Amino acid sequence: MKQISTRFSMAVHTLSLIAVSPNECTGEDIAGSVNTHPVVIRRIMGMLKRAGLVDVRPGVGGASLRREPGRITLLDIYRAVNVTDGDRLFRIHDNPNIDCPVGRGIEQALQRELDEAQTMMERRLERTTLAELIGKLK
User: Fold this and answer.
1) Residue-level pLDDT at 1
2) Which residues form the signal peptide (predicted)?
């Protein structure tokens, strides 16, 4: 079974670290905390920068949040790092057999359920800010 990308959790970790330790956040520092390769963090930081969530200082390094943690939701972060393919959390297999009574209708029947599940998940992520999540770390 294919798992959802870990970019989301790494991005949340990264932004949380920048929020609580703004003066100590080089790519190396973040990579050490996340326990991953700095290249992975650079890619994630690029996505977060394009989404307007961070500023990255070239040269000496370092990063800062562009918004207060209370104004960044988990949904903002989720969307910033492109966790899903084509903004869809769930995908339906290609080319079901239309000659089969199940194959003929499975996409339409299942897609409604999957769309609703995704909507519920996104609404839940939208209710939690980065500040609230950081508060749970203490």
Assistant:
1) 42
2) none
